[in-house]
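C-alpha cells for chain A. Residues wanted.
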C-alpha cells in the first residue's frame, strides 16, 4: 500500500512541493486531500498531477459541477460555480480531489482537461448541461442528459422545480410540442398526527 494512502499528510507535502505555488489551499479532512486551484492555473496544475512521477494520477474518475449560491444557508460569499474533480493514481494507490472556481458567475468558464484525460469528455458535458459551465477547448460541448430544446440548467439552485417548459405529443399536429409549464406551484406540508397517548407518554 502507498504511504500516501496510509498518510494523506505525506501526499499533501508532495502536492505542496510540485504544485504549491499554484495552490490556493491544500487541505486534509476525513483522511482525504483536497487541492483548490485558480481557474488560470487549473490546466497546468492538472497536467502536472498527471505527469509528475511522484504523483502520477493516471485516471480522472469523476468531475462534477457545483453551485455554491445557497451554501451555508446563504452565508457563502465566494464565487458561485465550481468544478470538483476526483483523480486516482493506480500505480501509486492514492487519490486527490481538485476544486476550481469559475471567475464569473454570469458566464462560468473553465479550461477543458480532455487533453489530459479523455474520460473528462462526458463529465464536462454533464457539468455544462446541468450547471451551464463552459469548458474551453472541449471538442464537442453539447447537452448530454437533457433534451436538445431544453431551456436552462436544471441543477442550478435558482432553477424552478417544475422547469420552464413542458413537452407533449400533439395528436392533431402529429409532433412533439413545447409549451409553458401548466403545473400550479404548490407547497406540500407533511401531515402531522397528534395523539394524546403517543408512544405511551402521558
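Reply:
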Amino acid at each position: 500500500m502507498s504511504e500516501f494512502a496510509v498518510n494523506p499528510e505525506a501526499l499533501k507535502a508532495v502536492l505542496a512541493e510540485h504544485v504549491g505555488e499554484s495552490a490556493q489551499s491544500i487541505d486534509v479532512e476525513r483522511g482525504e486531500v483536497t487541492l483548490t486551484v485558480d481557474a488560470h492555473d487549473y490546466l497546468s496544475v492538472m497536467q502536472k498531477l498527471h505527469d509528475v512521477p511522484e504523483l502520477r494520477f493516471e485516471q480522472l474518475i469523476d468531475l462534477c459541477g457545483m453551485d455554491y449560491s445557497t451554501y451555508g444557508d446563504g452565508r457563502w460569499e465566494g464565487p458561485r460555480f465550481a468544478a470538483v474533480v476526483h483523480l486516482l493514481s493506480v500505480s501509486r494507490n492514492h487519490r486527490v480531489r481538485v476544486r476550481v472556481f469559475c471567475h464569473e458567475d454570469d458566464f462560468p468558464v473553465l479550461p477543458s482537461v480532455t487533453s489530459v484525460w479523455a474520460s473528462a469528455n462526458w463529465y464536462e458535458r454533464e457539468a455544462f448541461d446541468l450547471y451551464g459551465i463552459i469548458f474551453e477547448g472541449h471538442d464537442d460541448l453539447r447537452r448530454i442528459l437533457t433534451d436538445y430544446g431544453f431551456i436552462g440548467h436544471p441543477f442550478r439552485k435558482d432553477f424552478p422545480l417544475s422547469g420552464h417548459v413542458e413537452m407533449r405529443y400533439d395528436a392533431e399536429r402529429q409532433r412533439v410540442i413545447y409549451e409553458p409549464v401548466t403545473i400550479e406551484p404548490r407547497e406540500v406540508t407533511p401531515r402531522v398526527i397528534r395523539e394524546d397517548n403517543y408512544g405511551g407518554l402521558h
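The chain has one domain: 3-149. The beta strands are 23-29, 32-37, 59-67, 81-89, 94-101, 109-111, 134-136, 165-170, 175-180.
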